[in-house]
Amino acid sequence: MYKLLIIPLMLIVWLSLYAGAIDQELAMKSYYKGKQAVNRGAHAAALQLDSLALAEGIFQLDPIQARAEAERMIYLNLLLDEAGNPTAQSFIRKPVQIVHFDVLDASLSYPYHYKLDSYDFQTTFERPAVIVVIKISYPRIFSINNPVEWNIIGSAQLVPL
Amino acid sequence: MKQLLIFILLATTLCWMMFAPVYKHVYIMRQALLQQEVDYLLEVGTSGQYGYISQMLIDQSRERLKSFGLEPSQLVYEAKSTLGQSVLTSSERVPRGEGIALTISYPVEGLFAIDELIGVQAPDKQRITAYGVQMSEYVQP
What we know:
heterodimer
């Protein structure tokens, strides 16, 4: 009798192990997609040249337009609506927040060493640049596990004409 | 009779337990493969040199995916611009500031057929898709 009991118990153990492994695999793929979205958002922001400054020969980013385009690209890539809320097609279930957005001014001396201690990020930029940090949470299979949330950092330098 | 029933139930469940996770893994990996192709094609296509996704790029991508065991004729590539252009060629490039959206899809084939063992019906006509949007850097000379 005990032998028969072992089989269903083992089935449950196997099943939860498999589900855990698949969950982890999906989490890594989701993180990767989030990273791609942030990178593309930063890239789109780094394309927004300030045309007034350009007329004077200065390569400068327009911070307002940069932010707008970065948001638009991140939302498009993650299949969110205009306000950053998930739609039926998106793989995330909670709204995405842009927790940090920084545009480096052309008046700084380059190469410029940028440090962001709160997200443990630092790098050296050769040209004016954009730094974006978003916070996304992954909808895990087992909700008893700890919530999975990431701060994903992306940056891009100004793309010359 | 009862023992026979238990045996059949146990055998199908065991069969499902052993092989279903592998099929799920294949599904995830195929999706990741398509995503990788989307990323690569977008990276090349949005560069200042192109501003569109050429047929040659798509053909080469089909060849790469074929080496992973996918059937090239079943792959569907769909490139659009955020302006609404549906055809992207060298004469209709996407200008700097607008995005190129690329979708690659592939049929699921029989990856969920094994779930019928435990009574879960696989959705038919489902496709694995990968999607990405990136802003074009192309400037009209």
